[in-house]
Amino acid sequence: MRRTHPLLLILGLVGLILLGREAWLYASAHPVIVGVGALAATGVGVFVLSRRHRMRRTIAATDGMTGAQFEHYVAGLMRRSGFRAVRVTGRTADLGADIVASTSDGRRVVVQCKRYAGNVGSPHVQRLNGTAWTIHGAQVTMLVTTGRITANARELAGRCGIVLVDRDALATWASTGNLGRLLSPRR
């Protein structure tokens, strides 16, 4: 283990003391500015924490859903986000197309939903890639899950042009109604 030289520790401590003294003097000379700054920082902190709590609460609702309920939940998010002609297929042998829709610019979207507590791996991406483009004619393919997506699945999806929406991205989507960076045409 590497040790820090005692002189550096002393210089750091002196620097902190001087910085603290300057902050105290500034606060004494400008109490209104410091007070407004503290209130603004507190407000931002409260906003960020409440938004995170709201996102967690929203996504937690999916944990008790059945697969079919989750598909309808995702379809609702798609409608609120501006997708058109959103349709849940509702078939057991859907070959990876749980939802079909169109983007606002007319591209055909095929969505596979996985309501999982665990990991979604590259076999899931491989199966979706094998059907979405050729069988379903997708121009945009999405895999939406309540679980976590493995690094191998992310790498494969990137190579195949498949949009991945994991638990964190789903929480953001549910709270903001925005998919952000995710929709781009297949390469």
Order of helices and strands: HHHEEEEHEEHEH
Strand tally is 7
Query: Radius of gyration from the CA trace?
Result: 24 Å
- Described by the principal axes of the CA atoms, the overall outline is elongated
Question: How many H/I helices?
Answer: 6
* Residue fraction in strands: 15-25%
- The proportion of residues forming helix, as a percent range, comes to 40-55%
CATH fold-level assignment of the largest domain: Trna Endonuclease, Chain: A, domain 1
Average predicted local confidence, pLDDT: 83
Alpha-beta classification = alpha/beta
**What's the CATH class label of the largest domain?**
Alpha Beta
Structural domains: how many: 2
Q: Could you give a short account of the major beta sheet?
A: 5 strands, mixed
Q: Low-confidence spans: pLDDT under 50, at least 5 residues?
A: none
Q: What is the level-2 CATH architecture name of the largest domain?
A: 3-Layer(aba) Sandwich
